[in-house]
Amino acid sequence: MTKPLHELSIAEAGARLRAGTITSAALTEHALSRIAALDPSLNAFVLLTAERALADAAVADADFAGGVDRGPLQGIPYALKDIIETAGIRTTGHSKLLLDNVPEQDAEVAARFKAGGAVLLGKLGTYEFAIGGPSFDLPFPPARNPWNPQHVTSGSSSGSGAAVASGMVRTAMGSDTGGSIRGPAAYCGTVGIKPTYGRVSRRGVFPLSYTLDHLGPLTWSVEDAALTMQVIAGFDPADPGSADVPVPDFAAGIGRDLSGLTLAYPRNFHALDTEVTPEVLAALDTAVEKMAALGAVVEEVEFPDYALFDACGRVILNAEAYAIHEQNLKSRPLDYGRYAFQRIAPGVVLSAADLVQALRLRRELSDFLNKTILGRFDAVVTAAAFAPAERFDSYGKDAKRWSGIRTIPFNVTGNPAMAMPIGFAANGLPLSMQIVGRAFDEPTVFRIGAAYEAATSWNDVRPTLEFAMAS
Q1: Do 87 and 104 form a contact (C-beta atoms < 8 A)?
Q2: How much is the CA Rg of the chain, to the nearest whole Å?
Q3: 216 contacts 171 by C-beta, under 8 angstroms
Q4: What angle do CA 2, 231, 63 make, to 5 degrees?
Q5: What are phi and psi of 419, to 5 degrees?
Q6: Given pLDDT bands bounded at 50, 70 and 90, which one contains residue 402?
């Protein structure tokens, strides 16, 4: 049976584009039709750039016809989180404060997509300034979970999670300061990679926390993530946080089993937490057993309490976010949504001593992970979320405490971390794990994830979307 165009992987679509059996125009028109059918129910997009998409597709098709090959994303539709600047295209941060913001230049990551011949479909919803919550007091409604629209997508790359899970795009850019790529990936049943700090330039992206912010893709599969990383990774001397390190072949290990790899499994990190559901714990244990069957040596290890990582990351995030937003908080406080204001404003009470102590703890925690654990093991396997996606009606007037996403430790340490599906809860919502690697060793993370993905069927299960197609 011939696959629908939106189910083609990036590699499959690329092979057909190069063989001339499909065109980028056809892929793009199919994507635009799917967005028209699904997005009114999912609210993933805040801006559709249909004319730009068709123009990008025409350029890609002309390049293919002329023998010009710009890489794995040439002719492939994608979308950007709406904190990523796009020249001549509105970039709002999902906020009233930036409704009239039309940048003059592309962010570096947007420029790399364009140079790689990819097709921009539009801008995707986010939590306000990548921190607020699934708010209804903003210029655009919050994205909804394709598995059940009464449930959230997590954030802050909320539109990216919804767009990928529903098949509107195969790859979408997100940002991750405390888990904003991996949270939506976990709740929406997709792959989401937070690369090593400094691997992908953040120039031209509205910041939340200078020392915690990362950029990376959400995708349908591990291979799609690796191919997207091949286009967007690389040193940018204009980004002070960018790392001048070689760009590897991110897909080099895909297709190999796990023989020769050693994996650390910090079961205490999640099993002792009262918030973890039995379904998540059982799915994690089963996933680790599958990895051992694929050839990995798995050893249970002890991690420091999650609360240490969390407190460290929250102090740094809140201090840096307040510094970024201080002037607007003073001059235009009522233009913030309630959730974002409540998340950012407490940074005013943090002292210099609080930040210094958090930075000291950050070094200790980073040394523990990178020396004590990853000095012995190739990667770590742990939870991405302690429960499936929450319902919208669990959110009230005021911002609730941070949800069951367990991702901030690896923003604190800066290590690459990938969320991916490991099953489903009884209510049909996805469950997820994280694979965490050594700094700048994303290829090993992809190798592990791809081997697990190939040996299981979770990646083949997609939401039916009957609710959206019927509405």
Answers
A1: yes
A2: 21
A3: no
A4: 65
A5: -95, 145
A6: confident
Report how far residue 121's alpha carbon sits from residue 77's, in angstroms, rounded to the nearest whole number.
6
Alpha helices in 134-221 (DSSP H): 158-165, 182-188
Provide CB contacts within 8 A for 168, sequence distance 6+. Answer: 6, 31, 34, 35, 38, 39, 42, 44, 45, 79, 121, 162
User: For the chain, how long is the longest CA-to-CA vector?
Assistant: 63
- Please give the mean pLDDT across all residues of the chain: 96
d(C-alpha 214, C-alpha 237), whole Å: 16
For residue 254 the two structure tokens come to 């895909």
- Among all residues, which ones are annotated catalytic? 81, 156, 180
Instruction: Tell me the C-alpha distance between 9 and 379, whole Å.
Output: 26
Which residues touch 92 (CB under 8 Å, ≥6 apart)? 46, 82, 98, 99, 101, 123, 139, 140
Nearest to 208 by CA among 107, 351, 347, 350: 347
Structure token digits, residue 135: 């708010």
Q: How far apart are CA 342 and CA 333, in angstroms?
A: 11
Nearest to 309 by CA among 402, 412, 383, 211: 412
Judged by DSSP in three states, 418 sits in strand
Q: Give the single-character DSSP code of 142.
A: P
- Whether the CB-CB separation of 254 and 446 falls below 8 Å is answered with yes
For residue 380, give the DSSP letter. Answer: E
Ramachandran quadrant class, 204 (left: phi over 0; alpha: psi -120 to 50; beta: rest): left
Length of the chain: 471
Task: Note whether 100 and 38 are within 8 A (CB).
Answer: no
Given the structure tokens 């950007």, which residue do they identify?
80
Separation CA 336–CA 334 (nearest Å): 5
pLDDT digits (tens, 9 = 90+) for 433-466: 999 999 999 999 999 999 999 999 998 999 988 6
The torsion of the CA quartet 414, 446, 261, 296, rounded to 10 degrees, works out to: 120
Q: 156 preceded by cis ω (within 30°)? A: yes
Rounded Cα distance between 81 and 156, Å, is 9
Query: Taking the CA of residue 66 as centre, how many other CA atoms within 13 Å lie in the half-sphere pointing to its CB?
Result: 8
Domain 8-469 indexed as CATH 3.40.50.300: no
C-alpha span between 23 and 240 (Å, rounded)? 39
Distance CA 385, CA 403 (A): 9
Look at the pTM and tell me if it is higher than 0.70. yes
